[in-house]
Amino acid sequence: MSICGPFDPAFSDLPDVMPVFPLSGALLLPRGHLPLNIFEPRYMNMVADALGQDRIFGMIQPRPDQHKNYFMDPDHPEIFSTGCAGRITAFSETDDGRFLITLTGVCRFNVIEELPCTDGGYRTVRGDFSPWKDDLDIPADDTPINRDRLRIALEAYFAQHSLRSCWDTLADSDDEMLITTISMGCRLSPLEKQALLECTTLYDRGDMLTTLLEMAVHAGPKQVHGSAN
Fold it and tell me: SMART domains attached here (predicted)?
């Protein structure tokens, strides 16, 4: 079922070429809302240019080397082949010269090629949205997620990190928003978040998310760091 509203881009509106924001540990999923604090000059330029055009840019993660080092080339690291395009849906300026934006996920894409950096200093890619075209539709609920198993895993995860459970707040959400909110909000590793991004179906993502939370609880607390590149 299509969800295209008055402000939502149709598949034909998605750009062939778009800016990308490589950010380790950041996960954007279709219809998810990602708040971003933009302060680097090149990404200030990117946001300003996007606001003057279609308000769309892609979130994508730097690819680690075999030692899981994400900072091989701090200025231009290799990126994963799959990201998610988002549309700027909220925007404000701060007195100290930053942009505070909310990026709402639209559709995943595969990178066909990376193009030369723009005059503004940010990176752009030619992307292929066609393998992920179904992202523009509400996922079918033919196979509901196992909410009981997810709730147990999430509450154990929160308890381990000395956080208050938010299950009561999330429980009324539909399956997609429940999985999207938890996937984007939990402090999972960049590789784990990339795996969640690339899940084909909502059921697969829900099952993987639950398994990752169970594994995190079993392994004990860990610290995850992210950086813009």
Answer: LON
Q: Is 128 exposed, middle or buried (0-12, 13-18, 19+ CB in 10 A)?
A: middle
Q: Could you tell me which residues come within 8 angstroms of residue 4 by beta carbon, excluding any fewer than 6 positions away?
A: 10, 136
For residue 167, the surrounding DSSP H or E stretch is helix 167-170
CB-based burial, 58-72: b 16+ in 10 Å, e otherwise: bbbbbbbeeeeebee
Q: What percent of the chain has pLDDT over 70?
A: 88
b/e map 129-141, b = 16+ CB within 10 Å: beebeebbeebee
Nearest to 188 by CA among 154, 224, 221, 217: 224
CA distance 124 to 57: 9
Q: Token pair for residue 2? A: 């299509």
Give the position of tokens 């539709």.
Answer: 137
Q: Classify residue 182 by its DSSP letter.
A: H
pLDDT of residue 67: 57
Tell me the pLDDT of the chain averaged across its residues. 89
193 close to 133: Cβ distance less than 8 angstroms: no
Give the CA distances from residue 186 to residues 9, 20, 37, in Å, rounded to whole numbers and listed in that order: 28, 23, 18
25, 61 Cβ separation under 8 angstroms: yes
pLDDT computed for residue 135 by the predictor: 96
pLDDT, tens digit (0-9, with 9 covering 90-100), for 56-88 = 999 999 998 655 555 555 678 899 999 999 999
- Residue closest to 201 by CA, chosen among 172, 175, 167, 174: 175
